[in-house]
Amino acid sequence: GASKEKYATESSAMTSTYVSFNATRRSNARFAFVAACALTAAIVAGVLLVTTEASPMQSGIRTSARPTMGIRHMPGANFGGLSRRQGCKNANLRSIFSSAAFELPPLPWDKEALKPHMSPETIDFHYGKHHAAYVNKINDIVTGTDKESKSLTELILEEKSGGLFNSAAQAYNHEFFWKCLSPSGGGQPSGAIAEAITKDFGSFEEFKKAYDAAAVGHFGSGWVWLVKDGSGKLSIMDTHDAETPITKGLTPILTTDVWEHAYYIDYRNARPKYISDGWWNLVNWDFANENYAA
Amino acid sequence: LGFGFPLFLTILHPSINMLSRFARTQARRAFSTAASLPDLKYDYTALEPVVSAKIMELHHSKHHATYVNNLNAALESYAAAEAKNDVAKMIALQGAIKFNGGGHVNHTIFWENLAPTSAGGGEGPSGDLAAAIEAKWGSVENFIKVFNAKTAAIQGSGWGWLGYNAESGSLDIATMSNQDPLTSMTPLLGIDVWEHAYYLDYMNARPKYLENIWKVVNWSDVAARYDAAK
């Protein structure tokens, strides 16, 4: 009776000891695991801190909702910090360990998504080669100089011309352009931009006619833009080669790339067809509204 | 009236035809400086693999043809404006004449600057031209290196040129943007670096296109232009 009890107690004690011993082992293991995690986290945080401390963390094209970290040089030009190291939450291994000041920003959509208006092959070359080359060129020029910590917008507004301006402006223009395209784009605008277009052009048809004329009529390489001035008035302008409206204090609303590389693979020499079938079927009115509200 | 008039027209028809054809010829003669698309001296396939038939056909029958058509339209409008003494209109047309006229002038030279290897394309310069190139750049190889570097660096669309500077009596390399024709010197050799000139074969690799184009450069044409310019 009693021995049975004792045995039971002992065995339960043993069980509990066994349990507590295993618990200790488990908790040791758990402790070790937690400690290892903490240590790794500390190392990662330390590396992040050390490698990114020197430069302001700025993310891609800004919308009105986000502060521009003091890069506001001109009214409406709140596009500071384009293509800088992606924001903290987007930091990846490449940005942790790369020493490049500027990075090729990710596309807003999958390269297959714009078919049939713009082919994945065009995206591969236009984004993967042309846009990438501009970003690489900037890095080649600024790395190791005090320009390394400048934003794209600063480089554009300060350089004004020359090789670095061309590369920075083209990097800006292309980043803006990708956002002007959307797989769910096209059709008629709505919202504030639609009202503004009617107000400043008479009608959407009048606006489209003027935009088409500028796009098709632009001779040589360049871009067509819908821009807003300081008073909020919309207008269409075309720029040559790398030129960009922010140098004139204008706010870009939409742009279409009319360099031949933008349409040659899909439309050959038929730029009008690229505009009618490509551009007007992809135009991202949401992005236009965002820019108009900024 | 129902019978006579149609009969009258039927008899007169050939004369009316002749008259309108005559009028059109006269009109054409009035624009005797009207541009026309020159034929190539070789097939579209002849410059492969350096420049594909795909590019040659588009480049010649679409791009160059468009410059010719647009130039003629601009010149017609210009003549009409001139007849009315509408100077503002004449000025407004300058851009179109420069773009399209330049395009026509430049491409006309370009097609003759190139030749298939079977017709001497790529066979390096000789005689006076070679001597002049070597005197200025040390060697043909170095000339090509310098030419390619300057031409590759053109922002956007344009042309690289070897020209003869009559004032100094020397050869020079020049780059022009868009279709601006080379007017400060006598153009001897032009290389088109608008993207349409190479994109389908070389994509964005303009330097690779420039490396290869020399394999089909018609040096005897360049030399002939040099002799004429001197």
Note down, in words, how this protein is organized.
The complex is a heterodimer of chains A (294) and B (230). Mean pLDDT of chain A is 81; it is low at 1-11 and 53-95. The N and C termini of chain A lie far apart (86 Å). Chain A is built from 10 helices and 3 strands; from the N terminus they run H-H-H-H-H-H-H-E-E-E-H-H-H. Chain A has a 3-stranded antiparallel sheet with strand order 2-1-3, with helices on both faces. Chain A has helices at residues 2-52, 93-97, 120-142, 152-159, 163-179, 192-201, 204-217, 264-267, 271-282, 285-293; strands at residues 222-228, 234-240, 251-257. In chain A, strand 1 and strand 2 form a beta hairpin. Chain B contains 9 helices and 3 strands. Chains A and B meet through helix 3 of A and helix 2 of B.
Question: How are the secondary structure elements laid out?
Answer:
The complex is a heterodimer of chains A (294) and B (230).
Chain A: H1 2-52, H2 93-97, H3 120-142, H4 152-159, H5 163-179, H6 192-201, H7 204-217, E1 222-228, E2 234-240, E3 251-257, H8 264-267, H9 271-282, H10 285-293
Antiparallel strand pairs in A: 1-2, 1-3
Chain B: H1 4-30, H2 53-83, H3 87-92, H4 94-113, H5 127-137, H6 140-152, E1 158-165, E2 170-177, E3 186-192, H7 199-202, H8 206-213, H9 219-229
Helix pairs in contact in B: 2-4, 5-6, 6-8
Radius of gyration of chain B: 23 Å
- The 3D shape of chain A can be described as globular
Indicate the percent of residues in helices of chain B. Answer: 55-70%
Give the overall pLDDT of chain B as a whole number: 92
Which strand order does the major sheet of chain A show?
2-1-3
SSE arrangement of chain A, N to C: HHHHHHHEEEHHH
Strand content of chain B: 5-15%
Helix count, DSSP H or I runs of 4 or more residues of chain B: 9
* Stretches with pLDDT under 50, minimum 5 residues of chain A: 1-11, 53-95
Count of DSSP H/I helices of chain A: 10
